[in-house]
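Obj: model holo form, ligand = adenine.
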Amino acid sequence: MRFDIFTLFPAMFDGPFGDSIIKRAIAAGQLDIHLYNIRDYAEGRHRVTDDYPYGGGGGMVMKPEPVFAAVEAVLGPQPGAVAPLILMDPQGRRFSQAVAAELAALPRVALLCGHYEGIDERIRDQLVTDELSIGDYVLTGGELPAMVIVDTVARLLPGVLGNPMGAANDSIASGLLEFPQYTRPVDYRGWRVPDVLLSGHHAQVDRWRRREALRRTLARRPDLLASAALTDADRKLLAEIADERDGEP
Ligand code: ADE
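Output (holo structure tokens):
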């Protein structure tokens, strides 16, 4: 999958894309990331990319010309026909695991990182095809959201995670929070790994894990249960967990 990222600060991406799973995915050709510095497409000796807002008020606004020039140079005169251009913006649609799965199904996605106090509205109206927010808080720019989106999408691509189950068992992706995990030693400072995990009895392990995933989801994110794919056995387990909780002092 290919990402084209338009930013005023391409160096910010060096760390997150230069290590670990993302680095490996790029090296393996599963992920193709192209970064473009919007400033390189600005005219004039000073390559100005921002200006004062019409109507007054504080802050600076990203100018339309360099952004249009960068996007059209890379995606052509009809950018939307080549790839969606997604603006990182707290006003956008909320990014989620479901949106990540939508994007992971596409061959190519372009991300536009906003900065300063805002962007000229003509960029939003005429160039951008979608807007995504990573949460109800305001960052200094769209670079961190773009990294979050690339990272989340990348691990859904075939072969990117070493584990053959890939992302299928993920917390949230499965609709439930994850069950607790343990590794060696069996006894650490007197805190023991639950016996069932040492039993070698796969059906019992699976049942315990499902039960703990349900328990955790009920305690921490009961809202997720409404849309999770629950079986009759899950509902029975949930009823048992609720009974146990009622019995607590
Ligand atoms: N730019 C600034 N804050 C943002 C957010 N929360 N999501 C996406 N883009 C942003």
